[in-house]
Amino acid sequence: MRAIVYDRGGGPDVLRLVDKPVPGPGAGEVRVLVVRSGVNPADWKTRSRAGGSAPAPQVPNQDGSGIIDAVGRGVEPALAGRRVWISEAAYRRPEGTAQEYVIVPERQAACPTARPSTWAPAWASRS
Predict the structure, then answer these.
(1) What is the dihedral of CA 86, 91, 96, 102, to 10 degrees?
(2) pLDDT tens by residue, 99-109
(3) Domain boundaries defined on the chain
(4) Do the Cβ atoms of 47 and 40 come closer than 8 Å?
């Protein structure tokens, strides 16, 4: 999968595109196919204050939205296919929403609807 990462503090010039393996959710977690990744002031302030180094590599962006495509042990299987809003994905974790899939604790994926989705990310039709 594609992800944006940084391994040192600074402006947008420290961001780079990398390929990573698609992760699997652990107990109490969900994997979300990211449709939209939100950048807010906390994201760029954290990156700019990272100093000479950051947790290597850090995937930025706390917030986003997408579709749950896998659930870990202890999570209701019926959540798969649900549209969600993701909050604080990178809070005290190295993985934010600036990637194609993100793993978050179930409580950080809010389900605004009760029906599975056919919502597709904008990049899905690209090769």
Answers:
(1) -60
(2) 999 999 999 99
(3) 2-119
(4) no
